[in-house]
Amino acid sequence: MSRIQGYAKNAYPLANFLAPLRGARYTAQLMKLIRELTFPLIAILAAFLVGGILVALIGDDPIQTYALLIGSALSWPDGIGYTLFYATPLIFTGLAVAMGFRCGLLNIGAEGQLTVAAFATAWAGISFANSSAWMLIPLTCLVAIASGALWATIPGVLKARFGSHEVINTIMMNFIAVGVASALTQTYFKQQGDPILETLPIGDGAHIPRIGQIIPGIPARIPLNMAFVVAVLACALMYVFLWRTKWGYEIRATGANPNAAEYGGISVKKQIVLAMAVSGGLAGMVAINEVLGYRYRYYQGFSPQYGFTGIAVALLGRNHPAGVLVAALFFGALTRGGLFVDIFTEKVSKDLVLILQALVILFVAAEAVFRRRMGKTESQV
Amino acid sequence: MAEILSFSILYSTIRVATPLLLAALGGLLSERSGVINIALEGLMLAGAFTSAVVTHYAGNPWIGLLAGIGSGVFIAAIHAVACIQFDSNQVVTGTAINILMLGIPTLLSGALFETTGSTPQIPRANLIPNAPAVIAFALVPVIWYVLYRTPFGLRLRAAGENPEAADTAGVSVAAIRYTGVLLSGALAAIGGAYLSIGQSSLFTRNMTAGRGFIALAALIFGKWRPVQTMLACLLFGFAEAAAIQMQGVIPHVRVEYIQIIPYVLTMVVLAGFIGAARAPRALGRPYEKE
């Protein structure tokens, strides 16, 4: 405990400021929370600062742009509704990437896993279109999770069995996923004469309800659907899995120090495969939002890089389910606000959001920039 | 007829292979020095965009190419500083740069030309359709020579294989790695420029369309060696060229299945099925001077 306080004293002005309030264990936890929050917040501020300079350079007013960005994301009900809707897939991919990180793996294949899952989900929704909703919704959800998990298990097994790096394999499998899904779509599931590369619609029974149809006061035009509730539940489940089960413990032990884990009797190879499978299953759940809750079909290019944004979400959320939830909401708000910036500013386009995302990743990854200045070097992730 | 077909396949193989080869050779220099470079895609985009814009304004493709190289080096410098100076996770930083370069060209072209990501058409006389291909294939023996026959090449390989030993021998691992990463930015940018001011006559949003990743695949397929990497690029180029030519010829085989062959092959090679593919030993490991 003294180490934590001594550490905080040097590096964290806010923690130092709160030091007179220091009571007992409770304070140590508060210090820990502050420490966890400091760098993500600095990274966001730095990203907005650089982004603002860019906006000014191309000849718009940064303050006005940011006011528009944030204001349009927080308006009721549309702003909030759309922010939650855009956050939903990012919660899933953020959890997926965080799951990998916890086991020391970098799953940059969430994009491929969710592509395969979306196609497979649409396939199930079309093939069993005549089933009742009681059958079809659980079935399609299961297909989404299983197909994502399966796609991610392949690089997991290749790593465990042959030691081939999961980063390269997941990148390769992203491209294979798009190729296979689009070939199968064109061969078996495309409507004759449809100019867009998309499947037939799924059966009505597979549609999951919008929040607006359940809770009065939220207009049903907002596509926010039950997948958001599933996403929040997934955060809670992931916490329980990682910190309250033996499997989760073994995955974290492997991520923290594979040699020590192996020495302690944990099969590192098994953990790698398990972590990749769970990670892929989480990524696959994006299909619940996109296919079952929004578009009711698979079409090529439906994902604006959800899998890669998931890396930003996981890093910013410090690979913790609660952090992932907050970070996904933040990026969801940026996506919503970006659309308004696109329309209502003179020169800035919604690409500003992509740039902010990239800058957040850069600054979070290079947090030693800030650490060193504070006399502390400790590389994370 | 058959001869015309085969000649045109050869020609388009080289056309497809050129940008891959340039980016892959760049990646080779970075990765042999010990720094993972999955930012090749973003570096190519930087080169493609900048050279198209500068060629449009300057009316001279060579000035455009130089500016493109400059932008590639600049973006690579961000990667280098983050990875070498601040020990960032190299894959994460590379991913960030790829996302960044998806956004920046589109934002700038919107502001400069009021388009959604493309630059104005460049007149035919101001294009360089062949020079980058010549540069690419001429660089293969040059890089081979530098890598295996010069002190610099030895140091570069040492920084990637055994940085501690290189350091003990008086080599600045950081300086070598900076050189490797910055050179990768320059080469990948030429590859990108070939797309915008060589093959076509403008920049379009995300015009590399994953070529940076295929280049990475070729680099691994070629086991991080220059000549093998060139052969891998030609093979991948041939697969793509054949896929385009065969479109519709065989009714039941979709083009997509041919296009994914390079990715599948890379996974097979990486798993060690076609001889051992060994990455530089210190690849991805930051080096902290004792």
Structure description:
The complex is a heterodimer of chains A (381) and B (290). Chain A is an all-alpha fold and 381 residues long. Helices cover 74% and strands 0% of the residues of chain A. Chain A has one domain (61-345): ABC transporter involved in vitamin B12 uptake, BtuC (Orthogonal Bundle), CATH 1.10.3470. Chain A is built from 18 helices and no strands. Chain A is globular. The two termini of chain A are 23 Å apart. Chain B is mainly alpha-helical and 290 residues long. Chain B has one domain: ABC transporter involved in vitamin B12 uptake, BtuC, CATH 1.10.3470. Chain B is 72% helix and 0% strand. Chain B contains 12 helices and no strands. Chain B has helices at 2-32, 40-58, 61-85, 90-113, 131-149, 151-161, 163-168, 173-199, 211-221, 226-246, 255-259, 261-270. Chain B is globular, with a radius of gyration of 19 Å. The N and C termini of chain B lie far apart (66 Å). The mean pLDDT of chain B is 91. The interface between A and B is large, with 50 and 46 residues.
Main β-sheet description of chain B: none
As a whole number of angstroms, the C-alpha radius of gyration of chain A is 22 Å
Beta-strand residue percentage of chain A: under 5%
Q: Quote the CATH topology of chain A.
A: ABC transporter involved in vitamin B12 uptake, BtuC
The CATH class of chain B turns out to be Mainly Alpha
Fraction of residues in H or I helices of chain A: over 70%
Structural class determined from secondary elements of chain B: mainly alpha
List the total number of helices of chain B.
12
Number of domains of chain A: 1
CATH architecture call of chain A: Orthogonal Bundle
The tally of domains of chain B stands at 1
Q: What is the tally of beta strands of chain B? A: 0
Mean pLDDT of chain A: 88
Largest sheet of chain A: none
% residues in beta strands of chain B: under 5%
The helicity of chain B comes to: over 70%
